[in-house]
Predict the structure.
Amino acid sequence: MTSHHDITANAADTVQADHTLRGFIGYVMKRCFNSVQADLARELEALDLRMLTFSALIVVVDNAGLRQSELAQALSVERPNLVVIVDELEKRGLIKRTQVPTDRRAYALTPTAAGKELYHTALKVVQDHEAKILAGLTDEQVRTLRDALKSIQKSADG
Amino acid sequence: MTSHHDITANAADTVQADHTLRGFIGYVMKRCFNSVQADLARELEALDLRMLTFSALIVVVDNAGLRQSELAQALSVERPNLVVIVDELEKRGLIKRTQVPTDRRAYALTPTAAGKELYHTALKVVQDHEAKILAGLTDEQVRTLRDALKSIQKSADG
DNA sequence: TATTGTTATACTCTATAACTATA
DNA sequence: TATAGTTATAGAGTATAACAATA
């Protein structure tokens, strides 16, 4: 990354301008996650899914009959924010809202046949994506990474 | 997490409802980063900084005189999105925009005395935050984590 | 022609308050 | 009273197109 204005040369040209920030795991994680998120979004675009709609679909298929509040808790998404996600998946015919007979306030979420089919397709896409981004790492490194992220989350949730 | 509606018991009560997603590092990273980001935001609130404004301030102090386009590149933020960040820091008297004599299109960003002071204060806050979230990990685990995140980002950036 | 900073705009994710209908 | 789902709303991060001034 050479510069065309060397007269006003500054540190940005010689060392990483974000050197101090690179010392923070939080910053490194943000940069990493942004890249992962953008790459995954590109790959899920063909299925018209985003990380969040993909996640919701997976949980509904894996836990047919769960309520919206349970889905929200599982994904750590505020209930209001989940409404549009469920709306979208329902309008696309991937999941259904059905009244819970024992509690008329609640809706049980169940996948449709199309939802289950997309589940398998999308899972393959995301599995391939994972394999790609983890290609440079050993199983042991991935294990350590996963454990470390869990530990950090626990500390941050305090 | 016991349920009050065991009649309609489902998997969400017994195993983690997001079990499949937990198998993906991308999902684990998202959940972890959300927690870290929220916690850091709380701690930076006292200084009226966010992760992004903090990051911009750090880079400007460390690289006095760099241009907005260089700051954008350093932080991997699109140029239009950086304008409001720089505006905010400038209005608060933390940095200054000064014309570059050799290129009248460009602005050089330099920190004020107040900016340099906040730099040190904020750095301490974030360093303490880092220590907190990394408390459960050994230096070796943190090293592996950092290397793994860098490797993943590189793969994702393709 | 290309680049710097900017404006306008849109999409997504996240967060909170308040409503309704039930429990 | 409390809870489930919803509506409305706002803040924040991210992305692209297009413009004026300048190189």
In short: Residues 34, 38, 67-69, 79-80, 82-83, 103-107 of chain B lie near DNA strand C (CB under 10 Å from a C1'). The longest strand of chain B covers residues 103-111.
